[in-house]
Amino acid sequence: EVQLVESGGGLVQPGGSLRLPCVASVLTFDVHAIGWFRLAPGKEREGVSCISSNDGSTYYADSVKGRFTISRDNAKNTVYLQMNSLKPKDTAVYYCAAAAHAIIRVGAHLDYDEYDYWGQGTQVTVSS
Length: 128
Fold this sequence. Notes:
Elements: E1 4-6, E2 10-12, E3 18-24, E4 33-39, E5 46-52, E6 58-60, E7 68-73, E8 78-83, E9 92-99, E10 117-118, E11 122-126
Parallel strand pairs: 2-11
Antiparallel strand pairs: 1-3, 3-8, 4-5, 4-9, 5-6, 7-8, 9-10, 9-11
């Protein structure tokens, strides 16, 4: 079983930045990928970003491209989501997830049903 712990959420003004760490209980190389998802009130869960353990490839939702960056620190078993130029529409609970049981299908890196383990989430609120 893989345990994931997110942190770093909070209240930030529009245009501000936050960095969300996701600490895994296993080596990041021991899972196929780690992704970030978000859930806002009244909306469906949205895949935000993913980093592949195989080759370090990264994937982003169109809504965050150019503003968010995913990275990993293998020595710390941690994946980060750097969020810049935040907008009120980015307000949500952010979850990290690990795809551990199978390689993610091509084109499905931001599909939540490809992931097996989930963290508890961290709230991000963008408001003035």
